[in-house]
Amino acid sequence: MKLKDKVALITGAGGSIGKAIALGFAKEGAHVAVNDVNRDNASSVVAEIKASGQESEVYIADVSGYESVVTMTDMIVDRFGGIDILVNNAGVISSASFLELSVSEFKRIMDINVNGVFYVSQAVARIMATRGKGGAILNISSLNAWQPFFDTVHYNASKASVSMLTQSMALELAAHGIRVNEICPASTETAMNREALQDPENRKAREKAIPLGRMGQPQDLVGAVIFLCSDDASWITGASLATNGGLSLVPPFGPQKYGAP
């Protein structure tokens, strides 16, 4: 087991990707602190983990609130004795053109996607540094951090911020033996986009654009996350791993073979 007896906090673990990671961690022997704002979803994940024989608890907290984050991490330390791994998975997305995007919606996306990563990472990194045993932090960024998508300027900006946070934290926390990496998914089928993907034409167009020819599933991301959080990646920090079926490789003029510019 790659994560045997490690204590892992996964934010947003009641959602599709967070749940897959939480169950994957438990399978690898980790004790999992399941964070979410939806108690029913989080409790369902914890029940599955406990059924597998691993320890797990629900921690309801909004990552965009610093005080609630500190309270949560203190509770996890009281319960498990420390935190070895953090996966910053909590995040939200919405669609609006730049000219129509409201200030309140821009702030909401940044509060959760960026401030949330900072708040939780700082609280957990302080715990890790005090313990002196190192640790691993894994951020869920996005292909949007590298390439802007239409009508998601706020989300694009938030994920670009996560990518720079990843590198900056990796640089500063290395002295404490804390590694910080990220994965950059795209076109992964989750509860948030599943309804839109029910449109056959929409799904076909998306799949056609992906070199590997299919939408990603949450389970497709789990192996990469486990690797980067395990001792197998003990010499890796500040890395950004594309987990998007090759979508980041598509040339500027699309997947057609146009040849040299």
Percent of residues in beta strands: 5-15%
Radius of gyration: 18 Å
CATH class annotation: Alpha Beta
Strand order of the largest sheet: 3-2-1-4-5-6-7
Tally of structural domains:
1
Question: Topology, pairings included?
Answer:
Elements (H helix, E strand, L loop, with lengths): L6 E4 L5 H12 L3 E6 L2 H13 L4 E5 L5 H15 L4 E4 L14 H29 L3 E6 L12 H21 L4 E8 L14 H10 L9 H11 L10 E4 L18
Parallel strand pairs: 1-2, 1-4, 2-3, 4-5, 5-6, 6-7
Task: Note down, in words, how this protein is organized.
The chain has 261 residues and is α/β, with parallel strands linked by helices. The chain has one domain (7-236): Rossmann fold, CATH 3.40.50. It is 43% helix and 14% strand. The protein has seven helices and seven strands; from the N terminus they run βαβαβαβαβαβααβ. It has helices at 16-27, 39-51, 66-80, 103-131, 153-173, 200-209, 219-229, and strands at residues 7-10, 31-36, 56-60, 85-88, 135-140, 178-185, 240-243. It has a seven-stranded parallel β-sheet with strand order 3-2-1-4-5-6-7, sandwiched between helices. Helix 1 (16-27) links the parallel strand 1 and strand 2 (31-36). Helix 1 (16-27) packs parallel to helix 2 (39-51), helix 1 (16-27) packs across helix 7 (219-229) and helix 3 (66-80) packs parallel to helix 4. It is globular.
Properties at a glance:
14% strand, alpha/beta, Rossmann fold, 261 residues
Gist of the model:
This protein has a single domain (7-236), classed as NAD(P)-binding Rossmann-like Domain (Rossmann fold).
